[in-house]
Amino acid sequence: MDQPAKDIIRLLSVSLLIMLAAAAINFVVDPLQLLRTSRLFTPMYSQDSRMQNAGLIRSQSFDTAFMGTSLAIHFHQRDIDRVLGVKSLKLAMTGSSSREQVFVLAAAMARKPNRVIWEIDDWIFHDAPEIDADANLPADLYRGNIKGFAAYLFDGAMAKEAAWIAARSVPRLERVLAPLTNEALFKFWLRSVDDINALQPGEDVGALYNAGRAISAYRYITDPLRSKYLRDDTDYDMKVRVFERDAIPLIRAHPEVTFDIYLPPYSVLQWVALRETSPDTLKSVYAFSALFCRRMMEFPNVRLFDFRGVKDVTHDLNNYSDVIHHSPAIDLKVLAWLAEGKYRVDAVEPTKYLDQLKAQVEAYRLETTSH
Questions:
Q1: Nearest 5°: phi and psi at 333?
Q2: Which run of H or of E encompasses 252?
Q3: Is 277 inside any structural domain?
Q4: pTM of this prediction?
Q5: DSSP assignment, residue 120?
Q6: Could you write out the DSSP letters of every residue in 70-104?
Q7: Fewer CB within a 10 Å sphere, N or C end of the chain?
């Protein structure tokens, strides 16, 4: 055998050994806890919800799934559990579409939760890519098939995370390595499930959520150079089609599960922005909201709550970091409203709270934003 052939064989052998080593450490440490709940190693968690949720669904004990977008992502599970008397699992994903949310919730249903708390707004209902074409969501990890596990086990980047988790689990090394474990270097750097995508201790909440930031955001999105995206959401028929394709089949397929669905308390500036720059979009949103509320009343396992017109919150701009994202204090209010059954939509008047919102948006004057 000539030397080039030997070199090729040697290279292939080394490559195979590296792959097998990666697979071995990923299998033993199992950073996502897809194969087993971590006992030998200190579990660590990632802020990448689309990936991390696949492991959480398999490894965590829960009776309530909590789903939503970035408006639901900062909730603490301990607050959900305490206020609502449940054992929750937060599965919220920033910028997620209804297709993504329903796919993840369907995976969670295999664990037989009895309740889903679901933050929904009409913007999630759009033509998103098919799940297997979604580069950000590792669908096969949720399916638990051979393809998904193979990709997981032979992932070199995951092996790096696994090696670090294993090293940190050694008591003598943990004190030295802990300060080096941060989001800049590692995906799995959080010690507690409760800290996933939640504000970390020491963050200045007042600096993050205040009227100045909300008003600046309003001015930014209504600038003629940037406001085009506000006009890109007028396809009522598309929303209805996607809503009927995604949300309705999931709810209908699980009559044993209570779906507590809530419409989040955007600041009034979001609606005013639509009023001023794209009234057609606002009209479309209102029309879809009316259909949505009426449609939800058809299901006995759905309790719908509409927080969009809670004026004490939505008109106090100090509650917001922009025109939609509310502070942790409002997270707690949302949970309290759910616990108390406040602002629950009634089948007799399904658009009562929507009508209140319309009146508020029509009456609101921009002069109130001058600070």
A1: -65, -40
A2: helix 236-253
A3: yes
A4: 0.92
A5: -
A6: TTTTT--HHHHHHHHTS-EEE---TT--HHHHHHH
A7: N
**Tally of residues, the chain:** 371
Distance CA(103)–CA(108), nearest Å, equals 9
Tokens 């930031």 belong to 213
Could you give the dihedral angle defined by the CA atoms of residues 40, 45, 48 and 52, in that order, rounded to the nearest 10 degrees? 50
With contact defined as beta carbons under 8 Å apart, do 371 and 218 qualify? no
pLDDT at site 233: 67
Structural element, H or E, at residue 21 = helix 3-29
Range of the domain at 243: 206-327+350-371
**Residue 184 predicted with pLDDT over 50:** yes
In 3-state terms, what secondary structure has residue 213? helix
pLDDT for 224:
82
In a domain, 193, yes or no: no
Which residues are 175's β-sheet partners?
Answer: none
Distance from C-alpha of 280 to C-alpha of 261, rounded to nearest angstrom: 26
Residue 8 lies in a domain: no
- 229: pLDDT strictly greater than 90: no
Distance CA 236, CA 75 (A): 31
Instruction: Take residue 101 and report the two structure tokens written for it.
Output: 């949310």
Total domain count for the chain? 1
Give per-residue pLDDT as tens, 196-223.
Answer: 999 887 789 999 999 999 999 999 999 8
> What torsion do the CA atoms of 88, 341, 269, 274 make, to the nearest 10 degrees?
90
- Main-chain phi, psi angles of 100, to 5 degrees: -65, -45
- Span 117-129, pLDDT tens digits: 999 988 899 999 9
Match 């499930």 to its residue by tokens.
193
pLDDT at 172: 72
Is residue 240 in some structural domain? yes
Name the token pair of 139: 């669908």
Nearest to 89 by CA among 98, 97, 99, 80: 80
Supply the mean pLDDT for the chain. 92
Instruction: Report the candidate in 74, 119, 76, 73 with the shortest Cα–Cα distance to residue 98.
Output: 119
Is 269:314 a contact under the CB 8 Å cutoff? Answer: no
Q: Which residue has the tokens 């509409």?
A: 306
Query: What's the whole-number mean pLDDT along residues 95-105?
Result: 97
